[in-house]
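Q: Could you fold this chain for me?
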Amino acid sequence: MEETERTTFGWLDLLWLVFLAGLAVLPPIFEIHKQLVLLSIGAFQIFEQRLLKPVPPRRRGGYGVLVKILLATLLVGHTGVVPINSSYYLIYYLPVVSAAMLFGPWATLFWTALASAAYCSFLLPALGEYELTTSGAAELAIRILFFFLPAIVVNRFVSESRRQAARYRGAARGPGSAFGRAGPRDPEPAGSHQSVCGNALEKIGACRPAHERARRLHIE
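A: Sure. Below is the predicted structure, expressed as structure tokens.
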């Protein structure tokens, strides 16, 4: 079982590196900050558990999502003349989906809103040089709303999976289940064993007293 998990983990790592390599060879190719941020995202995604090992387990998930939001913000900030128009804004799906897999519905909405706020922060410097048109505002609203779509879908799927697993565990520990403890047996009526032996095994003498069986064993 452990070998299978390691193999699966290795394939996921490989697919993740292929994905990042594809982003690395897309414009802007010669933006060194973009390449460094992609490298950081890949390294953190693969070694997240090891890097956050000193962090208390209850805070580990929140720190991981926060780091991914910061890395996503850095990537968007270095991949466009006007960062709010960067095609790499989809990288925010990474922290959004991570939060949906780790937390409950309300916490997932909080982290998604925080990722949306980080993306919208690029709007403030852009408004100093450009005017926000009606179509531009609509496009921005669509992008923000679509951040919440995978958050809701993934969180619902994960929550339902956890409830289903909890149900199975409860059923496995319940009385009368194949995996639970056997319930107390009803006491047998007095003399039932003797009567069964007497009726079913009488002809072969299996229920004879021990001293009689011993004497019969010594018969030559």
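A (continued): The first helix runs from residue 2 to 24.
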